[in-house]
Amino acid sequence: MITVMINAINTYEVFIKQTLLEHLALDDTRDYVIITDTGVPKQWVTKVSSQLSNVVVFTVNAGEESKSLAVYQHLIAELQAHSMDKSTCLIALGGGMIGDLTGFIASTYYRGIDWINIPTTLLAMVDASIGGKVALNTTVSKNVIGAFYPPLKIMIDPLVLSTLPEKEMGNGYAEMIKIACIKDAEFLTVLERKSWSLNDQITHAIKLKKWFIEQDPYDLNVRKHLNFGHTVGHALEHLYQYQYSHGQCVAYGIRIMVHKTPFETRICRVLNAYNLIDVIAYDKPQLIKQIMHDKKKQKNAIEIIELSDFGQAIIRLIDPSALEHYIPEKGVLL
Ligand SMILES: NC(=O)c1ccc[n+]([C@@H]2O[C@H](COP(=O)([O-])OP(=O)(O)OC[C@H]3O[C@@H](n4cnc5c(N)ncnc54)[C@H](O)[C@@H]3O)[C@@H](O)[C@H]2O)c1
After folding, report:
1. Domain-terminating residue out of 106, 130, 163
2. What DSSP string describes 127-166?
3. What is the pLDDT of residues 226-261, one digit of tens each?
4. 230 in a structural domain
5. What is the pTM of this model?
6. 96 lines ligand 1 (CB under 6 A)
7. Is residue 9 part of a domain?
8. Are residues 181 and 84 in the same domain?
9. Calpha distance 35→37 (Å, rounded)
10. How far apart are CA 84 and CA 45, in angstroms?
11. Same domain assignment for residues 144 and 117
12. Which residue's CA is minimally distant from atom 29 of ligand 1?
C-alpha cells in the first residue's frame, strides 16, 4: 500500500492500492451514508456497502447537473429523514462530481461532519479528490458555491478504473499532463512515452498536487498555477453545456495557452497521444464573455496562467481587452 500524507488545512492520508476496495477496514460502529451516482457501476457500490453494518446509499443522477443547490437540498432532507446526526460519516463513491457534492454537504451538515472520499474516476484520483476543495455550481458558473473541507481520508483502488470508459480516462490524463506542464518536465516525458504503470502515474500526480496545496492551501498564490488551461477550459465547458468533456476542454485551454509559444509542439504531441484532440469551434466574443464570468475574475481583470518553461508556470493579471490577444480567431490544433 502506498500512503501519501497531506498537510494542508488538516492532516489526512491518501491510500493507494490495487484491491483496496476489497478490505476497507472502516470503523464499523459508525453510521455511514454512501453518496454515489447512477453512472458508477453497482459492483463498486456493493463492494463498499457490504463491508458496513449501518449504511444507507443515496444515488443521484450522473452528470454535472447534480452538483447543484437543488440536489444538495434534496440530500440534506434525505439525511434528516434518515435521522443522520453529527456523528454520521459520508462516503463519496464516484468521480469528481460526487466528491465535490458530498464534500460540500459534509462541510455544512450540522456545521461539518466527517467524510471519506473513494474516487472512482482517474480525474478524481489524481486531481479532484486532492486538496480539500468542495463545491456546487450555479446556473451561471461552475464551483461558485464552495468550501475548503478535506475528507478524513482518501482511498484509491485503481482497479475501479477497469469499468471507466476511455473518454473519462482522457479527462484524468488531461489533468496529469497539465500538472506535468507546470511542475515536472520529466513527468511530461513519462506521460509522452507511457513509460510508467498507471499506479505509479497516479501516485506521482498526487505527490505533485500535494506540493501545490501544501504551499498554498487556500488558493491564494502558487496553487493557482493548477488553473493552467482551465480559465479557457471551464468557459468552453459551460458555454457548450457540457457537450465536451472536462478533459477535452482543459486540453483545448492548454493548446490555446501554448499557441505560438516554444512549448506548443511538444505539449500538443502529448495531448494527441491521449486522444485529447477535439476541435471546439468557438465563437470568440462569446468565449471571452464567458471567461469573464470565471471565478478568477478580479474587478475588471482576469488571471491567466502561462508557462515560463517546461515544468514552470507564472500568473499573469490581464485586462479583458488583452484576452483578445490570447484567444485565436478560430480553433487551434497541432
Ligand atoms: N474539487 C476539486 O479540486 C476539483 C478538481 C477538478 C475537478 N473537479 C470537479 O470534478 C468533476 C469532474 O469529475 P469527473 O471527471 O470524475 O466526472 P464525474 O464525476 O461526472 O464522472 C464522470 C462519469 O463517470 C462515471 N463513473 C464514475 N466512476 C466510474 C467507474 N469506475 N466506472 C464507470 N463509470 C464511472 C460517472 O457516473 C460519470 O458518468 C467536475 O464537477 C469538476 O468541477 C473538482
Report:
1. 163
2. IITSS-EEEE--SSSTT-EEEE---SEEEE-GGGGGGS-H
3. 999 998 998 888 888 778 888 999 999 999 999 989
4. yes
5. 0.94
6. yes
7. yes
8. no
9. 7
10. 20
11. yes
12. 40
